[in-house]
Amino acid sequence: MTANIPFPAHPFGQQIDQHNIEQRLAQANGWEAKNRLLVQLARELPDWPAELRTQERLVSGCESRVWLHIREDRGHFQISADSDSRIVKGLLTLVLTAYHDKTTGEIASFDLERWIEKLGLLRFLSASRGNGLRAITREIVQQTQYPHQ
């Protein structure tokens, strides 16, 4: 049971929104600079309690281990995520920025892949990372469409 475990709060989707990410990545020239920025953003993710790193929270379809924790609060979904890979944690900041504190409809209608392409990152992603992001997105959409299953 996770009722007594504090939700890992983070600034993504609220203080750090899509516009902020777009501005910061636009100023980063080239993959190395963009990658450095993603790693810096990943440092803003909180340490995850070990109690949340459970098998049931693992996202299947990711090469690195990725855990998701989603809860509903008055029609909006609070989403937290963690990974054992620094680069993937950086990519998770984009996922959290896109989906955290959104409604089911907002989550279902957001095209993460198109946004990542707009950010100039899609061409730098390996096939396995792209597949992993799609798996994470599918899991978020599924859990927020049917939150009590």
SSE blueprint:
Elements: H1 18-27, H2 30-42, E1 66-73, E2 76-83, H3 86-99, H4 104-109, H5 112-118, H6 127-145
Antiparallel strand pairs: 1-2
Helix pairs in contact: 2-3, 3-6
Question: How would you characterize this protein structure?
Answer:
Belongs to the SufE family. It comes from Chitinilyticum piscinae. This is SufE family protein. The chain is mostly helical. It has one domain: Sufe protein. Chain: A. 46% of the residues lie in helices and 11% in strands. It is built from 6 helices and 2 strands; from the N terminus they run ααββαααα. Strands 1-2 form a two-stranded antiparallel ribbon. Helix 2 packs across helix 3. It is globular.
Structural descriptors:
Sufe protein. Chain: A, two-stranded antiparallel ribbon, single chain, 6 helices, 149 residues, mainly alpha
Taking the alpha carbons of the first and last residues, their distance comes to 15 Å
Q: What is the helix/strand order?
A: HHEEHHHH
The coarse overall form would be: globular
Kindly identify the CATH topology: Sufe protein. Chain: A
User: How much of the residues is beta strand, in percent?
Assistant: 5-15%
Overall average residue pLDDT: 91
Tell me the structural class.
mainly alpha
Helix content: 40-55%
What are the segments in which pLDDT stays under 50 over at least 5 consecutive residues?
A: none
Q: How many H/I helices? A: 6
Q: Can you name the CATH architecture?
A: Alpha-Beta Complex
Give the strand tally.
2
User: What's the main sheet like?
Assistant: 2 strands, antiparallel
Q: CATH first level: which class?
A: Alpha Beta
Number of spatially distinct domains = 1
Side-by-side strand order of the widest sheet: 1-2
Radius of gyration: 14 Å
